[in-house]
Amino acid sequence: MSEYGVDLGMLSIGLLIARIVIGLIMAAHGAQKLFGWFGGYGLSKTGEFFVGLGFRPGKTFAAAASLTEVSSGLLVAFGFLGPIGPALMISVMIVAMMTVHRGHGLFATTGGHEVPLLYATVALGLALTGYGQYSLDALLGIGRWTTVATWIVLGAGVLAAFANLALRHRPDTPAGA
Predict the structure, then answer these.
(1) Is 45 exposed, middle or buried (CB count within 10 Å of its CB: 0-12, 13-18, 19+)?
(2) Residues 93-106: pLDDT tens digits?
(3) Which of 39, 66, 119, 150 fits as disulfide partner to 34, beta carbons 3.0 to 4.6 Å?
(4) Cα–Cα distance for residue pair 85/30, rounded to 1 Å
């Protein structure tokens, strides 16, 4: 037990469960875009969708988003490289919220921010708490990230999201609009 009454073993089990669930679902979400697995559209169709969002070339941006989702999910699920996986997850979810979900309210039933906000929030929580003793970081002895390093990595993820958004071409406004 810690001085706050928290059983560190139980905390690590809780972190492990959260990491595996959120990480594997995020990786599968990326695999839908990248490979068309799990009912997804694959890279070509996802690329067409990205063009409609203003990301050109669509296939390139779709590949980058897909690879970010897969890699962030796997890093989180395995508990590897500290806040890097969560920062990547937060980055791609910011872009999703600002493009796909913007203007649709909060809840998923209306296409709102609910799901990407949940992914980003869990990712932030994992970055701030660490992965626990049942992680590759702990096994390899690399699980000790300083507070400053963690915030720098998270900040880099947020900056990367806004850099990506800056590359976006706004969809053309129809004549007379």
Answers:
(1) middle
(2) 999 999 999 999 99
(3) 66
(4) 14
Tokens found for residue 30: 């990326």
Here the tokens at position 158 are 């947020």
Q: What's the rounded Cα separation, in Å, for the pair 26 and 87?
A: 13
Is the separation of the CB atoms in 112 and 120 below 8 Å? no
In SS3 terms, the chain reads as CCCCCCCHHHHHHHHHHHHHHHHHHHHHHHHHHHHCHHHCCHHHHHHHHHHHCCCCCHHHHHHHHHHHHHHHHHHHHHCCCCCHHHHHHHHHHHHHHHHCCCCCCCCHHHCCCHHHHHHHHHHHHHHHHCCCCCCHHHHHCCCCCCHHHHHHHHHHHHHHHHHHHHCCCCCCCCCCC
Residue with tokens 């897909």: 66
* Non-local CB neighbours of 177 within 8 Å, separated by 6+ positions: none
User: Does residue 176 carry a pLDDT above 60?
Assistant: no
The length of the chain is 177
Q: Work out the pLDDT band at 6, boundaries 50, 70, 90.
A: confident
Say how far apart CA 158 and CA 81 lie, in whole Å. Answer: 18
